[in-house]
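Worked problem 6 (solution included).
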Amino acid sequence: MSKLKLYGFNNLTKTLSFNIFDIAYVENEKQRQDYVAYIDEQYNAHRLTSILVDVTHMIGASVLNISKQDYDPQGASVTLLISEEPLEEGQLDPSCSVDPQFIKKESVAGHLDKSHVTVHTYPEYHPDLNIATFRVDIDVSTCGKISPLNALNYLINSFDSDIITLDYRVRGFTRDEEGKKLFIDHPITSIQDYIEPVVLDRYDAVDINVYQSNIFHTKMILSDVQLANYLFASSPQSYTPKQKLEITRRLRQEMIEIYSSSNVFDHE
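Solution. The predicted structure is:
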């Protein structure tokens, strides 16, 4: 098989790292088990694959290969190799395995180096706090003209996101027609510019950007904590006003510490 060639001369690698946390209050072991079972069903490898295939199409790429796995006792991972442009069927490496439920034969394409989409899930729980945390890590890495930022709003809306951490970086360089090096091929001042206003309105957000290195970082935390959205297998009416206040405090404390990446409260 002949070596695949890049299309054009755009050698820039653009990577979006998307990290979300979903928080829930679970009062006992039964609720914790039910929550984990719910997460495993809601975000299993099959559904995550469907999300990543949609992301691939949104950014204008094609799928080469799909690798997915559900884990015991919990969690899932999916990896897609993608290409910027489709190739003839005969150029596809025959060792590639593509799930026919998601990708039809005629839509399979060739692999471009460093172009991939991955997702991993991490359920977590601590019995002393009665707080369950579900984390999703997604990486969309592309080379060429396609941009992972085009799928940003879809990704945010695909999950229940209490805290969102976003990293976007552009690596390498390409050249214009006269040979001048270009280290980025599109204007950007903030990742927030690519997020729909209706989504941003629900969050408090802060940027930490290193413009000279084409590194962009945004952190978002849900502004309003509605207790009913965090109780698993119970309702606010099941608790006294004092209990509801304490549960809300615990949830908010957990969210603030995840958002700030530090233990800012006394846990003794």
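Discussion: The CA atoms of residues 242 and 248 lie 10 Å apart.
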